[in-house]
Structures are given as structure tokens and as C-alpha cells.
Amino acid sequence: AQSVTQLGSHVSVSEGALVLLRCNYSSSVPPYLFWYVQYPNQGLQLLLKYTSAATLVKGINGFEAEFKKSETSFHLTKPSAHMSDAAEYFCAVSDSGTYKYIFGTGTRLKVLA
Amino acid sequence: NAGVTQTPKFQVLKTGQSMTLQCAQDMNHNSMYWYRQDPGMGLRLIYYSASEGTTDKGEVPNGYNVSRLNKREFSLRLESAAPSQTSVYFCASNQGSNQPQHFGDGTRLSIL
Q1: Residue A60 sits at the chain B interface (C-beta within 8 Å)
Q2: Residues A100, B4, B66, B55: is their CA dihedral positive or negative?
Q3: Three-class SS of A40-81
Q4: What are the CA-CA distances from residue B3 to residues A38, B27, B44, B50 (Å)?
Q5: What pLDDT, on a 0 to 100 scale, did the predictor assign at position A46?
Q6: B80 phi and psi, to 5 degrees?
């Protein structure tokens, strides 16, 4: 069965520092992978998606993620954190042709001034 | 552009009461979903509707029913609410399988 693991339920970085949020998935075939961001009292918003076209995916707000098949990982990065990046981030996976999306448990990012 | 609209935004129920959560999307999407979000557990799929006229169970369907009223609307019903159903409920929609989902702002439901 599909599963997603997000390492670190809470991550703190200084403003201007590198952001690295980790996501590992389990799948027997190349999956579809997504990163979403959730601000307080709001729904999830799509940051970026991987659909096998390219291993390095660029998203909104300066975020990007790299698909590494050998490591079954899809980590999210941003070179320089901004205070407005403070939110909860979710990694999600789905198998080709299915409507069932599996979400990770989320990583809450705190940005320190 | 409203996107996905959920009503109500907040609700408090007593154990045993029934309630319907409403969801409507204006993006002409084929597929719609209901999730619940609980602390430390991410989002879990309750039911989904791949297309108008079809519904299927997700990961945690027990205690819930759904209706795909038309292409725009997908409702979630709790027939006899239990404290374990206290959660934040999100509706989402997309064009089809493997497509990014668009989410509503959620319904915060407390059951006493």
C-alpha cells in the first residue's frame, strides 16, 4: 500500500536560511507526488507537483522539490526562508489512475526573526 | 472566483445528532473528495466521487454517508454524530485522477 513519511513534525529555521522539508514515499511504481501548504484556518494550497516530466520541480513562492527514485524521496526546499513561509506543509502521493491520495502527517515550519 | 465553498464553517453538535456538510465547486471539476484532518494524522480520505453519479469509500468511511447531488455539489452526512467525529472536514475537487486538488477552507465540527 502507498504510504508517505514526513520526517520532523516541527522544523524551525532562521529568516534567510535554507528550508528543507523531508518527504519519503513507498510505491512500487513511479507515483504522482505533491506538496501543499496550509496557513492557519485555511484549506491546503498546491505548492508544486511531480508527474514524471522532470525530476526537479519548481513551484510557487520560490519552493522547489527534487524527485529521487533511488531514495524514494521528494524533499521540498527553498534557498532563503521568509517570515511568510511559516505554515504547515503536507506531502501527498497517488498512484497512476487512482483517486486515492495519501497525505503525510505534515511538517509545521517556524521562521525565526 | 470562489473555487471550493464549504458550509458551515463552524458547528457544534451533541452526540447522536445528525448533520450535513455542504460543498460546492465552480471549476467544472469532475472529481470531488471529503477528508478529515486531525492533529498529527494529516488528511484522511472519507469518501470520493470520481465523477457525477459515482461515489466510493476512502480510508475512513464508517459513520458517514455522501451524496453527489450534481457535478457541482458533494455533501457529507453524519447520521448519528459521535465525539470521535470531532475534526476539521475539508472538501476538495480536481479534474480527475492524479491531478492536483483544490481545497475549501474547511468545516470545524465539535461533537459534545
Answers
A1: no
A2: negative
A3: CCCCEEEEEEECCCCCEEECHHHCEEEEEHHHCEEEEEECCC
A4: 16, 6, 21, 18
A5: 96
A6: -145, 95
B23-78: pLDDT as tens digits? 999 999 999 999 999 988 889 999 999 999 999 999 999 999 999 989 999 999 99
Contact flag A96-B98 (C-beta cutoff 8 Å): yes
CA angle A88, A56, A3 (to 5 degrees): 50
Q: What are residue B77's DSSP bridge partners?
A: B20, B65
The residues in B 23-82 lying below 8 A from A, measured between CB atoms, are: 31, 33, 35, 40-45, 48, 50, 56, 58-59
pLDDT tens-digit map of A34-53: 999 999 989 999 999 997 77
pLDDT of residue B14: 97
CA distance A24 to chain B (A): 15
